[in-house]
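User: My collaborator sent over this chain with a note saying "see what the structure looks like." That's all I know about it. Can you take a look?
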Amino acid sequence: MATFAPRSPGVAVAVAGAHERARGEVAVSPRAAGIVMACFGLAILLLAFVLLSGNIKYAARAASALGTVTKLQFYPQQGSGTYAPIVEFTSATGQPLRIEGSVRTNPPGYAVGDRVRVLYDPADPARARLGSFVELSFPALLLGAVGALLGLVGGAVIAREKRRLAARAQVERDGRRVPAKIVKVVRDHSFGPTLYPWRVLCEWQDPQTQKIYKFRSEPVRADPRPHLNRATLDVTFDPAAPDHYLVDLSFLPKDG
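Assistant: Without extra context I'll predict from the sequence alone. Here is the result:
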């Protein structure tokens, strides 16, 4: 597997390979995760559009009245709480009605005595809504922003994985293959608890420049030491970008 990481002077450290193993019983590729995230973001965007469109249509056909905030309903939460306005208004037929705002805030968005616009369906005035931007548009816009963010992050993950795979293919095609001396096997928990904590550290010294290149394998599930009956591992790297390299662990058992 390809292992690419930020370059540091004289040392090539591979970290991207860790992302090729999911934290859990199932390995999930970054590309698959990016696609799921992008699709989920798109679904949320679509939902936000439907909600916003529905609210716009409702506002266009609804009757309007002026109401008065008569109370701020407090909803306690741990250590704090939020407030929702209680509004009383009279419909065009003279029916007195009382509604509660659907958005709760802290500090309160209204004060007792505030005059507010109320939208209602003449056929069902009891299901009225406050005609403010916060009540009609903000929730849908906030949902849309979350969906857009998820979509952008998912797209970025897909693009990054595409670049990583392209770099890996280039290393496999044009890279220099060298026998790197096995230094040690370590348990790596830098990404937190994982089923794939084992890495093999190795190094190779360029006989011409005497420069030492250090490599770290992709994470593997089982301790590889019983299978390391050799002094070196084959490593393919890009001399122009030595932080792009492949440590060959293909000899390990498939379940390891």
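A starting point for your reply to your collaborator: The mean pLDDT is 84.
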